[in-house]
Amino acid sequence: MKAATALLLAACLTTNVNAATVVSVGDGDTIRVSEGNKKITVRLACIDAPERSQQPWGARSTELLKQLTPIGSQVTLRVQTTDRHGRVVAELINYQGNVNKLMVGAGQAFAYRKYLRKCDAQKYLGIEDEAKRRGIGIWSVGRSGITRPWDYRKGGGSSITNSSSSRKYRCKDIGSWSRAQQLLTKGHRYLDGDGDGEACESLR
User: Fold this and answer.
1) 100, 117, 146 - which closes a domain
2) pTM for the full predicted model
3) Which of 29, 54, 109, 140 is deepest in the core (most CB within 10 A)?
4) Which ranges carry the TNase-like domain (predicted)?
């Protein structure tokens, strides 16, 4: 039922390009928005940003997305699909332009080659090449850049340990999606059961 609702929502958004209001920013490629009385989790299409635990890159990417999409600001969703987690996959457009492309151009996200079929692939790859040439953000460590987020997830992440507390949390006891993401950045990687960089999807 939840999946069907998400698919219907994506279809509606594709047909009607409506303004949405930013509610929160989860990381460098995930935000929450409200459209009318609906709260929607949006996964930015065409790009993949460093995981929050890929420090300092994850924090820098998240901070830039917060600057580009402040809470309460208006964005337009150019919807592509709904992913297996029920997130709407979309390009974000605001008064500054295409936010997804801005993230890549600032060296704070990679062009997500595996999922460029519905994107302007040539444009995204060109923007990435320019960021690489300039040596900014994720390319400041050299032309090879940092570990790609998709490889990082496959490898189970870095050797970051759990927080100083030995307490183990359960998603149902945490209380909010935002709190779950905070715990994930502090090393509680077991909350991200499927390794996609998002903790406790059930709390969205």
Assistant:
1) 146
2) 0.71
3) 109
4) 16-141
